[in-house]
Specification:
Elements: H1 7-19, H2 33-44, E1 55-60, H3 63-83, H4 88-92, E2 104-110, H5 127-146, E3 149-153, H6 158-164, E4 172-180, H7 190-193
Antiparallel strand pairs: 1-2, 2-4, 3-4
Length: 223
Amino acid sequence: MSDQFSQNDIDAVYRAIAARRDVRHFVPGAIGEELFARLIKAAHQAPSVGMMQPWRFIRIRSDAVREAIVALVDEERLATAEALGERGSEFMRLKVEGIRECGELLVAALMDRREEYVFGRRTLPEMDLASVACALQNMWLASRAEGVGMGWVSLFDPARLAALLSIPEGGKPVAVVCIGHVAQFYPMPMLEMEGWETRRKLADMVCVDRWDFPGLKASSDTP
């Protein structure tokens, strides 16, 4: 029996990758426990350096905690707008989260005591964060394949969010994850739709044998 996927399955994988979106607009309604379990399982099947599995997920069920997270995000949104200078007002017009509207809210965090894991991290300790990103990408692709939206929110003070959620010293929240039903998926990344940034040419991201990258220029051309 061949280990190769059927052509239909291969096409479906690439379709999910191309159609994945960072979603900010949701419609009301829970996603259901069975679907939630599948998405969490997909995340937990991610690769991780040295099999450290540094991801931890806190499921937010309390309306009060949800509102407290909204407040933290709103504060950081204002601080980000100030830091952006001339683009601050443009940034404030963007919808940057769907925390109140999404059916399922999670906080993804790095576990504590990560210093005990050396395999693959002696010179690159940040590989723990890369591993969590892999878990979130698994969940993102599974969500898109299931027809539900997912958004990754990183606008918050990690120390204050850690205190809110009783994350122990050494642990660190890295993403507020919004999952829920959508009226429709964006035809392209929302920030591209809104004119914030344009996808760059793939050719500008690849070179051979040594660093040989020119100044990167935005392009609307298909890679």
